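Entry for the shared binder. Reason: the reviewer on the internal report wants the predicted structure included alongside the sequence.
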Amino acid sequence: MEKTIQSAKIISGLIITGVILLSVFFKGYTSEKVTPAEKPAATAQPTGVPVDGQVLHAESLDEAMTVSGTLMAYQEVSISSELNRKVVAVHAREGKFIHAGTLLFKLDDADLLAELEQLKQQEKLVLLNERRLKDLIDREAAIQQDYDQAFTNLKVLQAKIDQLKVMIAKTSIRAPFSGYLGIVNVYTGAFVTPGSPLALLTDNSRLKIDFAVPEKHANTLKTGDEVQYNVESNDKNYKGRIVAHEAGLDQKTKTLLMRAVTDNKGGQLLPGQSARLTLRLANTGNALMVPNQALIPSSKGYSVYVANAGKAGFKSIEVGERSAYSVHVTKGLSPGDTIITSNMLRLTPGSAIQLVSVK
């Protein structure tokens, strides 16, 4: 019985101890102050339209213009006959380089040679008669009229001989200059007439380039100026020099036709190829270049936005030569101006701006 009473006392003590501990725990928990989380400070909002800018600096600019031209042979001729004759020999080697004076074609000249021999025999007789009369005139044994007639007959006959020699020379068709001989169009036995094309002879050692420049630059380019060009067949850059130009402008196109000459020693270029020429016009030492995206076109020209004390200023400008990325401003801007290059559609003159980046 006593054990039971002791056990009950122990259990009661444990329960009381647990209650005390729980009350202390809850008291401590409820006594803590829970502070609400501090609100983040409000960030400052931008006061204007965010834009990018670029500060203008004077720089050297080589003004240039690109035009199209055509390569032509320095010399080119269609070899043809001047006579109605039969071809008796073809010496031309088509597709080869030949030198000036090379015999290309031989025409039949048998009848001409026979006629020449006949005239030469007549010349001997007429010459003897002229000398005999000359001797008689010196001795006053003949009249002057007889001698004058004999002398005239001699000169007429000699002129016929010279004329016949010229005809015979025309039966030998030779190269007028050194060059590349193209395809031969006739062969032995063919009958040719004056103007019949026998072959094409081309001098490609140098090439001519004809091109036209606008009226604005007609007086800028001069004889002796260097030009650069390239062709479609390769990526090389070639050079040439202006050698001549027309005396006046073309009335239809208002352009000036000019001609340049370039070397072609390697034979890489061919007549008829198109050429893209770059012409240097002038060198500007204090040019202001503006990116193309900064331009605002209108019916009156071009304008740009300029950053000025946090505001967007609107300026009209005049432009000159332009490239793929920039344009030369000739009037309206000054070195040190900061032009706006982005977000122009959101701007109006006087708009507040915020420069995000400046180049």
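Summary line for the report: The CA atoms of residues 28 and 249 lie 106 Å apart.
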